[in-house]
Amino acid sequence: MISDPIADMLTRIRNANRALIPHVEFQHSKMKESLAKILKSEGYLDSCEIKEEKGKRTIRVGLKFTGRKGVIAGLKRVSRPGLRRFVGSTDIPRVLGGMGVSILSTSSGVMTGHEARKKNLGGELLCFVW
Asked: Which of 16, 43, 46, 67 has CB 3.0 to 4.6 Å from 21, enough for a Cys bridge?
């Protein structure tokens, strides 16, 4: 059993990105679906679709590449099951001076750090993507 499913998802994406594999599949959860949709809307993923086979749901994401290099330069899991990290709306960090994205889980759902700052919301800092 996986103790941190979000870290597993990010690791699968990171490994596929380095190996230039165009598609990755992992088990479905609402949190993973929200993360994948944010990564797609921010331009880090090419596609995101939910499949159901024999009663089991999976998420299949398509990675973006520029030549022989992935669009995603790095992924970092911040809050983890052993050490949760919560931030207020004024303490949300900027990734690479605004070139990357921080993703938070707030009371209004999963959103980017930029959206959370606009809505004046804090929450659990899930990961950084650049």
From this structure: 16
Taking residue 63's Cβ as centre, other Cβ atoms within 10 Å add up to: 21
Q: What is the mean pLDDT of residues 91-109?
A: 94
Looking at the domain that runs over 5-70, which CATH code has it been given?
A: 3.30.1370.30
Percent of the chain past pLDDT 70, that is, above it, reads 99
**Alpha carbon distance 129, 78 (integer Å):** 11
Report whether 32 contacts 58 (CB < 8 A).
Answer: no
Mean pLDDT of 79-95: 95
- Distance CA(90)–CA(28), nearest Å, equals 32
Domain with CATH 3.30.1370.30 in the chain: 5-70
The pTM of this model reads 0.92
